[in-house]
Amino acid sequence: xxxxxxxxxxxxxxxxxxxxxxxxxxxxxxxxxxxxxxxxxxxxxxxxxxxxxxxxxxxxxxxxxxxxxxxxxxxxxxxxxxxxxxxxxxxxxxxxxxxxxxxxxxxxxxxxxxxxxxxxxxxxxxxxxxxxxxxxxxxxxxxxxxxxxxxxxxxxxxxxxxxxxxxxxxxxxxxxxxxxxxxxxxxxxxxxxxxxxxxxxxxxxxxxxxxxxxxxxxxxxxxxxxxxxxxxxxxxxxxxxxxxxxxxxxxxx
Length: 253
Description:
Elements: E1 8-17, E2 20-29, E3 35-41, H1 49-59, E4 64-68, H2 89-93, H3 99-115, E5 119-128, H4 130-139, E6 147-151, E7 180-185, H5 193-201, E8 210-215, H6 232-250
């Protein structure tokens, strides 16, 4: 899908959520009329400048894109680079983070986007790594979002690290009622092929609205330009598929 040649407006605001306020960066083409929205969730590094630039890039394809700071419980706009990236940075940035909290954040942001001026009422969801898991969790909320693309989601076959013995994200598979597309790179140690098979098996045979794509010759974070694992060819291929998926489900004829 061709990227639109138009100016992109940026807005930063704090959205009231169940546990305080969540910083959100909003990107949308200027003077484009009512548009579908997409929530883009950052990875485990945080809502960096590079993550925001990727949200801006996606907006250039004709969407309103909201990039939330899902580490807001630990502080406003904390990132691993800003904290020095040492051994204490990861637990600090994840303080207060739970799967249930992420679900509440996505629900609140989706409601906001669906009803704001300039919205056509449709909302998609995408994310990378941790953000891929949050995207999967959002897809299990039974219609909170209309379509989801999860890039290399982590910990789908594990309990919430903050809540021992809690249900795995994949245990909510039966609640995925809207289209879900997942990308799993073949070189990713977080998700060997056996994991992908288990994730596929969690969905009933009739769940043709759910696809898990195995991406050859690619590693974790291959679709993010700032990553050392960035694979331009594979990234272009999966983004072409992801954009066509969103176009099909967020802009029905």
